[in-house]
Design a protein that fits this description.
Number of domains: 3
CATH superfamily of the largest domain: P-loop containing nucleotide triphosphate hydrolases
Strand order of the largest sheet: 6-7-8-3-9-10
Structural class: alpha/beta
Number of strands: 20
Helix content: 25-40%
Radius of gyration: 25 Å
Largest sheet: 6 strands, mixed
CATH class of the largest domain: Alpha Beta
Shape: globular
Number of helices: 23
CATH topology of the largest domain: Rossmann fold
CATH architecture of the largest domain: 3-Layer(aba) Sandwich
């Protein structure tokens, strides 16, 4: 169905900032394949898939869809009908005021007769299990529902291929399952080709074929088991493998060869249990150290917040929140979509003010008459969920300089802060300073957004989903940076729907459910009870799920394994030498 032949693409061709984004890509994808597209940030993944439906055109080479060249303008609408695109943020492609209008938009632009459009609306919504939501308002849907609606709007155009560019990055576990179940079913039942960009290796393990991009070329291409069995090669490409593959690789280095290479938790439980005899004793969780104690920098007392208060559309988002952020800690705030995470942290620098209760930042009430909001906001930096929303200048340098300039600093000090902030985020001044922010990859935009806040020299840094859309190497780098920030005296608040991400980096975690605090404790305490997080619409980290699966089979592992190192050490210590393969 898809043929890519010697594809080259440049950004800013002929200018000093020229980028050779694709460097002779050759690729063939058959009808009905299920393909995961991986690669480090800036590897060319998104540039490649935007060629598949003519959003970008080759500078040289060819892209053929069912034999039609994307540079043939007479064929472009048929190509875009055959290859539908679903982006990372569904809100960027939702235009209708009702669900049925959204799904009708594509067929209407194709000139499809009205009766057939009505039929397509019902069929497409049924395919994503949303047929009872015709009159719903898209903006009122959950993240997972919005993404499924985006898929339905593409299905209404009767595509033969759906391309998804990190469709689950901003979704909670429930929303992710909804989207992946939907595209998997469309592939199995309707034979629709699915191409999905993802940085989630557990998600990639659900596909049949994996293509790895690196620096504008195809670096690896094979079945999911073939690619994820080559752990060292993936690491050289700044990527990783699913956690269970990493565990098998680590155990093998210790002389323990598993009978097969597991990709999922379920496979790992079966494989490991097969070489370990059950016992009657199951150890309890490890002892929990007390959370950090220190000066309080942010405190909420009986905080409540209602959106659109006093109107027919008012909606209460927070209910009696009592919380503290102490100096020098890394606080994680976790919760499913709509739990109130972002609403809460927007009170931390007075972007929102309580409709009831009180918020104190650095000892000053955000609603008090003496509240210096400029001072609060310069001391509490906020990185939003979508970093591109806070980038607006012509160059990276000017974007980072915006905050310090508004503090009234002299040009030499501004320049020094810009260089220092870029250095802290690993952004070469010579390479990135004059680049346009929107020429960057998603991960690079996030580094620039963080640098722009660091240039303000805040005392508290709040990051809303900082690891979304970031490759494995970038996640590791950000975790290392967070320790550097802490050592430089910055207190951090990290917001995420992923307990996987928060458990390994937070001193303490607050879990929100329905606008209320459901848990406030150390990561090990929050993870101590099997099934508790799922009741909150969340999911345990992968090694915790492995531990509970093994314990159900009588294998005496700890129930609170939180990392690859812990899992490897615990499991290796239990396997008898005679069981080593």
């Amino acid at each position: 169905m898809i043929d890519v032949r010697d594809l080259h693409h440049y950004f800013f061709l002929g200018r000093p900032e020229e980028i050779h984004a694709l460097r002779g890509v050759n690729l063939h994808i058959d009808q009905g394949e299920m393909v995961a597209l991986l690669g480090h940030n800036g590897s060319g993944k998104s540039t490649l898939v935007r060629h598949l439906n003519g959003l970008l055109l080759p500078d040289s080479g060819h892209v053929l869809i069912n034999g039609m060249d994307t540079r043939d303008l007479d064929k472009i609408w048929e190509i875009r009908r055959l290859v539908g695109m679903v982006f990372q943020n569904p809100e960027s492609q939702l235009v209708g005021t009702l669900v049925e209008e959204e799904v009708a938009f594509g067929p209407e632009n194709l000139g499809i007769p009205r009766n057939e459009i009505k039929q397509r609306i019902h069929e497409s919504l049924a395919a994503v299990d949303m047929e009872n939501m015709l009159k719903a308002v898209p903006q009122a849907l959950s993240g997972g529902q919005k993404q499924r609606l985006a898929v339905a709007s593409i299905l209404a155009m009767r595509p033969r291929c759906i391309v998804l560019d990190e469709p689950t990055t901003m979704l909670d576990p429930v929303g992710r399952r909804e989207v992946m179940d939907t595209v998997g079913r469309l592939n199995r039942e309707d034979g629709i080709t699915v191409i999905c960009i993802t940085h989630d290796m557990e998600e990639a393990a659900l596909f049949d074929r994996v293509i790895v991009m690196s620096d504008g070329v195809v670096a690896m291409d094979g079945t999911v088991s073939e690619i994820f069995g080559r752990v060292e090669e993936l690491e050289k490409l700044r990527l990783s493998a699913p956690a269970m593959s990493l565990l098998a690789n680590r155990l093998e280095k210790r002389g323990i060869r598993l009978p097969s290479n597991p990709l999922t938790v379920e496979q790992a439980v079966d494989v490991i249990a097969g070489i370990m005899p059950p016992t009657g004793e199951l150890p309890p969780p490890a002892e929990v150290s007390s959370p950090l104690s220190g000066d309080v920098v942010i405190e909420t007392n009986d905080l409540e917040y209602t959106y659109l208060q006093g109107t027919p559309f008012q909606k209460k988002a927070l209910f009696g929140i009592n919380s503290k952020v102490t100096r020098g800690e890394i606080l994680g705030i976790c919760g499913s979509t709509g739990s109130g995470k972002t609403t809460l942290v927007q009170h931390f620098n007075a972007l929102l003010k309580p409709t009831a209760g009180r918020v104190e930042v650095l000892g000053v009430s955000t609603t008090g008459k003496k509240a210096d909001l400029k001072k609060i906001r310069s001391n509490v930096g906020l990185i939003f969920q979508f970093p591109e929303n806070q980038l607006f200048e012509e160059t990276v340098k000017e974007d980072i300089a915006f905050g310090p300039r508004n503090l009234g600093l002299l040009s030499d000090e501004i320049e020094g802060r810009v260089r220092s902030a870029m250095e802290m985020m690993g952004l070469s001044y010579d390479v990135f300073a004059l680049r346009h922010p929107f020429s960057l990859s998603g991960g690079e935009m996030r580094w620039v957004a963080i640098a722009g806040v660091l240039a303000m020299q805040p005392r508290v840094l709040v990051m809303d989903e900082p690891l979304a859309g970031v490759d494995p190497e970038g996640r590791k780098r950000l975790r290392e940076k967070m320790e550097e920030f802490r050592n430089s005296g910055i207190t951090m608040v990290i917001v995420s729907h992923s307990m996987e991400q928060l458990a390994g980096m937070s001193d303490r975690i607050i879990v929100l459910k329905g606008g209320r605090i459901a848990a406030d404790a150390s990561p090990r305490e929050v993870l101590a009870k099997d099934g508790k997080l799922r009741e909150m619409g969340l999911e345990e980290p992968v090694f915790v799920r492995l531990a509970w699966g093994l314990r159900e089979k009588g294998i005496p592992v700890r129930p609170d394994l939180m990392s690859l190192d812990e899992a490897c050490e615990n499991i290796a210590g239990l396997i008898k030498p005679g069981r080593i393969g």
